[in-house]
Amino acid sequence: MEAATLYKCVCVCACVCVCVRAQENFGRQEQNLEQHYNDVLQTLSQRYDDRAAGLEEEKKGKLEALYKQLLACGQAMDASKELIETAQDVYRCHDKRLFLKAVMPAIRRIEEFADEQVDLTLATSLEFNAPLADLSDVKTMMDSINIVPAPSAPVINPQAPNSATQTSLRVCWSLFSDDTVEYYELYYRPVLEDTPADRTGAPHAFLSVSGVKVMETHCTVTDLLPNAQYELWVTATNTTGISPASEKTLYMTGDACCSRISESLARLASERIARLIRTSLSPVPSPPVIKQRECTSCPEAALIRWESGNTNPVDSYTVELRETGTDASESGIAESVVAVPTCQCLIQLQTGRRYLICVRAVNIGGPSGRSEVITVSTTGTLFSLLEDTAHPCLSISEDGSTIFYEEEELPISAMALEDNNAFTRCVAVLGDLIPVRGRHYWEVEVDDGTEFRIGVASGDTERNSYLGANNTSWCMRHILTPSRHKYEFLHNGWSPDLRITVNPVRIGVALDYERGTLSFFNVALEQHLHTFQCHFHNHVQPCFGLDNPGALTVHNGIEAPNYTFI
Question: Is 0.85 topped by the overall pTM?
Answer without folding.
Answer: no
